[in-house]
Design goal:
By secondary structure, the protein is mainly α. 60% of the residues lie in helices and 4% in strands. It has a two-stranded antiparallel ribbon with strand order 1-2. The chain starts with a helix and ends with a helix.
Length: 138
């Protein structure tokens, strides 16, 4: 869970026009920056619960609410489905493609590091179910 200081700093950094509230895009950017990475469905819930333009106090409450919505293995597996082979495995190339869809670029060594960090076997293919479970323990 991010510290109050981090949330404050991120809030003011993302509040581009310094009006004391975050726009919808700033709100999402701020949540991603503090490590919450809400799904579109989560964002709709956050908008309904906390409004679409939160101030700092409301942003902190939204971060707390999102932190309680920890993804389940089924949620992670659902996110990985388009990169999963019919036999329920994923390979390093698919993981690299997945990371690139999130706006990041990584090399083969970094992909293997992600696989190892999640506790999955560094084999060319690894079971997605076990990988998803391991990711949630990080």
């Amino acid at each position: 869970y991010p510290s109050h200081e981090l949330m404050r700093d991120v809030f003011f950094f993302c509040d581009r026009n310094a009006d004391g509230v975050l726009s919808r895009s700033e709100f999402l950017e701020a949540l991603d920056t503090v490590g919450m990475f809400p799904s579109p469905e989560d964002m709709e819930k956050l908008y309904a619960e906390h409004g679409e333009e939160p101030d700092l106090q409301t942003f902190r409450a939204a971060v707390f609410a999102q932190s309680l919505r920890r993804m389940s293995v089924a949620d992670v597996r659902k996110q990985l489905n388009m990169f999963t082979k019919l036999d329920g495995t994923m390979d390093s190339a698919a993981l690299k493609a997945l990371v690139s869809t999130m706006g990041d670029v990584c090399n083969a060594g970094e992909v293997q590091g992600i696989v190892k960090l999640a506790g999955a076997d560094a084999a060319p293919q690894f079971p997605v179910q076990e990988f998803a479970s391991s990711l949630l323990r990080i």
